[in-house]
Specification:
The complex is a heterodimer of chains A (about 110) and B (about 110). With about 110 residues, chain A is mainly beta. Helix content of chain A is about 0%, strand content about 55%. Chain A is built from no helices and 11 strands. With about 110 residues, chain B is mainly β. The interface between A and B is medium-sized, with 28 and 26 residues.
């Protein structure tokens, strides 16, 4: 595997379900991100982890819960979601402080909440 | 005021045309500027990366940054149908938080 991988690629869940999204980066980066992408809107940053420590939480509802067990893996735990949470959820990684600060994205998980 | 403004399009051009995509921004602290290409149902793919002002060329793609005007551009020469995608601009100051445009949808017609 190379780059940033995400599983599952597609997820349909009911409002009472609990599910988790998984992201893995194979680039040796020290920062990982979760974004939400909805139609006609800019990417919305949800969470940032630098060196496994959460540094940003942009007022994300508590029904989204991130977990970063190590610098290569990132999870997003989902519970009691709403239909408006349906979107493409993108994971990204970067090497902060390298002088070439840019992000590399995974393919995303297309989430549909019924 | 949004941090980054980008015309969502859609933009439709004939094959072989020169395409110009643009973003404006408000934060003068931004130093790193990126263009991503996103095909339907895929994640964004890094296309071009520039630091500070100036031009950068990579094949048919040229990225320009004008920090005095807070304006960045992506030019695509000899556009191909395979260039049909949504193009996102992005920028950052420290690399901790990135700011994205809404994306411009481009269709290149054979």
């Amino acid at each position: 595997e190379t780059g940033v991988t995400q599983t599952p690629r597609h997820l349909v869940m009911g409002m009472t379900n609990k599910k988790s999204l998984k992201c893995e980066q194979h680039l040796g980066h020290n920062a990982m991100y979760w974004y939400k992408q909805s139609a006609k809107k800019p990417l919305e940053l949800m969470f940032v982890y630098n060196f496994k420590e959460q540094t940003e939480n942009n007022s994300v509802p508590s029904r989204f819960s991130p977990e970063c067990p190590n610098s290569s893996h990132l999870f997003l735990h989902l519970h009691t979601l709403q239909p408006e949470d349906s979107a493409l959820y993108l994971c990204a990684s970067s090497q902060v402080g390298s002088g070439t600060d840019t992000q590399y994205f995974g393919p995303g998980t297309r989430l549909t909440v019924l | 005021q949004k941090e980054v403004e980008q015309d969502p399009g859609p933009l439709s051009v004939p094959e072989g045309a020169i395409v110009s995509l643009n973003c404006t921004y408000s934060n003068s602290a931004f130093q790193y500027f990126m263009w991503y290409r996103q095909y339907s149902r895929k994640g964004p793919e890094l296309l071009m990366y520039t630091y500070s002002s100036g031009n950068k060329e990579d094949g048919r793609f040229t990225a320009q940054v004008d920090k005095s005007s807070k304006y960045i551009s992506l030019f695509i020469r000899d556009s191909q149908p395979s260039d049909s995608a949504t193009y996102l601009c992005a920028m950052t100051d420290t690399g901790n938080q990135f700011y994205f445009g809404t994306g411009t949808s481009l269709t290149v017609i054979p």
